[in-house]
Amino acid sequence: MFKLLGAMVVMLVCTFTAAQQPAGMASVDTTAPDQFHAVLLPPLAGADATDLAERFAIHQARTGSLVLLADQSDDIFLQSPGNIPPHEIVYGHYAVLQKILQQRELLFWQIPLWTVCVNLMSALVLFLVSLKQSDLPLFRLLLAIALTGNFYFLPQLAPDSFPFMLVPPGIMIWVYLLYRLMQDTKRLQSDAPDRASQFLGYAVKLLLALFLVDCVFIALDLNLPNHPGMTPQLVPLGQLFGITAALYFLVSRHAETGLELENLNVSLDQRVKLASAELQERYAQLKQDALDTASMKERKNIYQSIHEDLGDKLLQLIYSATVPETADLARSALAELRDSRNLLPDQHRPLEDLLADARNEIQIRCDQAGLMLTWQQLYPEQTVLLSARQCSALSRTLREAISNLLKHAHAKSASVSIDILSDSVLVYRVQDDGSGMVSITRPGRGLLNMQNRIRELGGSLTISAAKSGGTVLEFRFPLSTSEVRGTEVKGTEVRGTKTTQLSSAVSTMVTKEPS
User: Fold this and answer.
1) d(CA 503, CA 515)
2) Which of 204, 300, 325, 496 would be 182's cystine partner, CB 3.0–4.6 Å?
3) Would you give the DSSP letter of residue 410?
C-alpha cells in the first residue's frame, strides 16, 4: 500500500513540475518594447484560424496555437477574437509560451498517443498468442484490457471522428476488467506468491487509483498552471506502467515455465533410468526364478525316483528279514522315508489325516507285539492344518514313543490321547501299564530326539509315572492361529467351535485282547 501511494505522489509531482513555467520565467514583462510578445490560444479552425493567419505569424499545434504579436496594441484585439473563450488565452514572451506549448503537446498529445500505440501493439501480441493457446483466460483478459483502455484517449486524439457516446460504456468496461484482473492476481499470489504477480497487482491498483484521481479532477474542473482549459490526466502514465508490469509478469511466467519444463525433463530422464534399471533387475530375477524352478523340478523328479527305489528295497528287506529287529528297523526307515516324501517345506496337512496314518501304523505295530491299543481324540470338531515341521515332529515323536514302549515297558496295553487346549496348544499323551521308568541319569538317544523336536516348535516333553503303574509321556506344542481354520481367534482364545467336548470314552477302541 505504501508503494502504491509513493508511486502516485511521484507521478503527481512529476506532472505538475513539468506543467510549471521554466525557472526564471514565471513573470512576463509585457511592457518591455525590445521583446517579442505572443498569445497561446486553443487549437484554431475555420474563420478564426484564417483571420489570424492573415494578420499575424501563427504556429498551429495539436493542443494550441501560438500567435506572435506585432506590438502591444494587438492585445486588446485578441481579448475576444471570434469564438475564442477569453480564459483560454495566455499572454507572455514568445519563448516562454513556446515551451508551455511543448509541455502541453507532451502531456496532452504525445503521451496519450504513445499509450494508444503501446496498447495496440500489446493487444496484437496477446491476440497472436491466444490464437495458438486458446485455454489461457488470463491472456484474453489482458487483451480485452489493452483494447478497452483506448476509450480513455481516442476522444482526445480524434475528437471529430470518434463518437462520444461510446466513451462512458467503454471506460466502465475497462474499469470492470481491471477489477477482475486484480482479483485474479490476488488468487495467483495466494496460490504461488512471486514478485511478478505482486508487481502486476500493484500496477492494477495504481491504475484504478489514478482513474479515481482523474475523475476528481474532471468533477472539480481543475486546470494545470499556465494551461487554461486543460485538465490533468494521470491514467496514461499509469497505463504505461501497467503494460510494463503485464509484460514483466508474462515474461517471468514464461521463464518459470521453461525452467519447470527443464527440471521436469531432467527428472523424467532420471525416472526413466531408474525404471529401466528396475526392469532389468526384475527381468534378471524372473530369469533366475525360472532357472530355479526348472532346477527344483528336476531335483524333485530325481528325489522322487530315489525315494521309490529306496522304498522298494526297504520293502524287500522287511519281507526277507530273518531277525525281528531288522524288520522293525527297516519298517521304521520306510516310515521316515514316506514322511520326508509327503511333507514338503511349504506344504500343510490336516491333523485328521496325519492322525489316521499314525493310528494305522501304531495299530499294526501293537498287533504284532500283542498289545491292546486305546486311541482317544478329545478335542472339539474343527479343521486344523499343521505345517511340515509340526507334522514331522508329531509323527516322529509318536513313532519313537511307541518304539520305546515296545522295547522297554513290558506292557500289556497302551493308550494314545490327543487334545487341543483352549489356548491353541496341541497336547498328546502316550501311556502304558508296564514296569515304569527308574530315575533317568542319562537319557537315551530316543528321549533326546523327542525333546529336541518338541523344543524346536516351542513345546515341551513331560515324563511322569501313571497312577496305575507304567509311564506317561506328555507332548505339547503351540498351534499358530493361522493354522486353525473355521474358527475365530481372539488373543489366545479359540472361538466359533463346538463347546461340548468329547468324553474320554468317545473314540475309545480296544483293538486286541492281550494274549
Assistant:
1) 29
2) 204
3) -
Give the pLDDT mean for 434-462: 80
The values of phi and psi at residue 468, to 5°, are -90, 15
Longest distance between any two alpha carbons in the chain, whole Å: 169
pLDDT of residue 423: 76
Is 80 exceeded by the pLDDT of residue 14? no
Count the Cβ atoms, other than its own, within 10 Å of residue 88: 15
Question: Residue 458 carries which DSSP code?
Answer: T
d(CA 311, CA 307): 6
Helix axes of 2-19 and 235-320: crossing angle, nearest 10 degrees: 150
pTM of full prediction above 0.70: no
Residues 6+ apart with CB under 8 A from 38: 66, 67, 68, 69, 91, 92, 93, 94, 97, 98
**Encoded amino acid at 263, one letter:** N
In this prediction, residue 418 carries a pLDDT of 92
How many CB atoms are closer than 10 A to CB 59? 15
Question: What DSSP line would sit under 85-153, residue for residue?
Answer: -GGG-EEEEHHHHHHHHHHHHIIIIIHHHHHHHHHHHHHHHHHHHHHH-TT-HHHHHHHHHHHHGGGGT
Q: Is 307 exposed, middle or buried (0-12, 13-18, 19+ CB in 10 A)?
A: middle
473 touches 463 (CB < 8 A): yes
* Lowest-confidence pick of 50-59, 60-69, 96-105, 505-514: 505-514
Please report the DSSP string for 289-305 in residue order.
HHHHHHHHHHHHHHHHH
- What DSSP designation does 43 have? P
Q: Half-sphere exposure of 514 toward its Cβ, with a 13 Å CA cutoff?
A: 8
For the chain, how many helices (H) and strands (E)?
14, 14
Cell numbers placing 484: 486353525
- From the list 339, 277, 280, the residue with the least C-alpha distance to 310 is 339
Evaluate whether 408 touches 388 at the Cβ level (below 8 Å).
no
Indicate the average pLDDT of the chain: 76
Which residues have a Cβ under 8 Å from the Cβ of 138 and sit 6 or more positions away? Answer: 184
Mean pLDDT along residues 458-469: 86
Beta carbons within 10 angstroms of residue 437's beta carbon: 17
- Cell 509321556 belongs to 473
Report d(CA 334, CA 309) in Å as an integer.
Answer: 11
463-497 burial string, b = 16+ CB within 10 Å, else e?
eeeeeeebbbbebbbbbeeebbeebeeeeeebeeb
